[in-house]
From TrEMBL:
Pfam (any one): HTH_IclR
Domain HTH iclR-type: from-to ranges: 12-73
Organism: Micromonospora chaiyaphumensis
GO molecular function (one): DNA binding
Protein keywords: DNA-binding, Transcription, Transcription regulation
Keyword Transcription regulation among UniProt keywords: yes
UniProt key word DNA-binding: yes
Name of the protein described by the UniProt record: Transcriptional regulator, IclR family
Biological process terms in GO annotation: negative regulation of DNA-templated transcription
Domain of life assignment: Bacteria
Ranges for domain IclR-ED: 74-260
Amino acid sequence: MRDPLAEPSDLIRSVSRALRVLESVGRAPKGLTVKQIARRCELTVATTYHLVRTLAYEGYVIRREDGTYIVGLEVADRYRELVTAFRGPPPVGEALRRAAADTGWSHYLGRFVGGQVAVTAVAEGPRSPYLEDLVPGFDEGAHATALGKSLLATLTAEQRFRYLREYGMRPFTSATLTTTEAFEADLAAGDRRGMQLELGQFRQGVACAAVLVTPDKDIERRVVLACALPASEMMTSARVVRAKLLTVARAVADGIAADT
């Protein structure tokens, strides 16, 4: 959601409009006509036509035979570049993949990106339920994931309050914590446990655990490691999960350190 009060004085309107067009096309997998795009973006048809032609030329949208436009392959290329940049040096990706193969659990890295909690790397494990939302770039539900909790736990109470007030605490399941009081108590329990945890708070029947990999004064350099597994397995294996996470966290930290 764009903040109109934060709009820069030197905003290039044509670039802003082109991005709005691209976003609208991206939200419509069946495609949109120029008139439909114009309506959704509140632009004239003539302006929309010029923007769509430019985006099509650059490969960011594709015109189909029925006259509708869909997202182009250049967007996929940019996403691959984003994933590579987020993942970090090769040893980090190797540590994640090895952990997923050894344990069977999906492993995730997360950090603050532009002030928001985001998933930055993923290695899928065969024993973990598939979580289609948790892909690199996912930046929602920090209050409902162990990854998000682990990062938010590095903030002051006032910083957390402002974060949760800005991004909200929507319920993903009936177990999701939706008050700051309950959330603070949960973080305190995680600190005592030495591992942040959630059981069915993001997805019914799924549990997630997370530990801090690298603390840093710069919040955007703080990294956390998380894994997901069936909630029933977490309830009987929490200590084992913590031990394995800490081992992987050390490998990830070494990989990050070697690159600096």
